[in-house]
């Protein structure tokens, strides 16, 4: 799975519990996008989560 290159957000694991309380494993995946961004003055493709995109931590390449 892809991780956010800025904040390091990745998958997290837990337990799914049904109405009858049967338990099984599951995972939550982050909303990671592949975007072209300016990194150290050059255009580069990076994996960035939507929270980092919204907060302006990434300058998109034109």
From TrEMBL:
In terms of InterPro entries, this protein maps to: Bacterial_rp_bL28, Ribosomal_bL28, Ribosomal_bL28/bL31-like_sf, Ribosomal_bL28_bact-type, Ribosomal_bL28_sf
Q: Which SUPFAM superfamilies match?
A: L28p-like
* Superkingdom of source: Bacteria
- Sorted alphabetically, which keywords does the UniProt record give? Ribonucleoprotein, Ribosomal protein
Cellular component terms per the entry's GO annotation: ribonucleoprotein complex; ribosome
| Signal as UniProt keyword | no
Q: Which GO terms describe its biological process?
A: translation
Keyword Ribonucleoprotein among record annotations: yes
Q: Which Gene3D superfamilies match?
A: Ribosomal protein L28/L24
- Which molecular function terms from Gene Ontology are attached? structural constituent of ribosome
Family in the record? Belongs to the bacterial ribosomal protein bL28 family.
- The protein's name is Large ribosomal subunit protein bL28
Gene source species: Candidatus Aphodoplasma excrementigallinarum
* Gene that encodes the chain: rpmB
């Amino acid at each position: 799975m892809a991780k956010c290159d800025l904040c390091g957000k990745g998958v997290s694991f837990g337990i799914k519990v049904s109405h009858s309380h049967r338990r099984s494993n599951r995972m939550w995946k982050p909303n990671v996008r592949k975007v072209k961004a300016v990194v150290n003055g050059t255009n580069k493709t990076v994996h960035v989560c939507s929270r980092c995109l919204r907060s302006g931590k990434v300058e998109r390449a034109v």
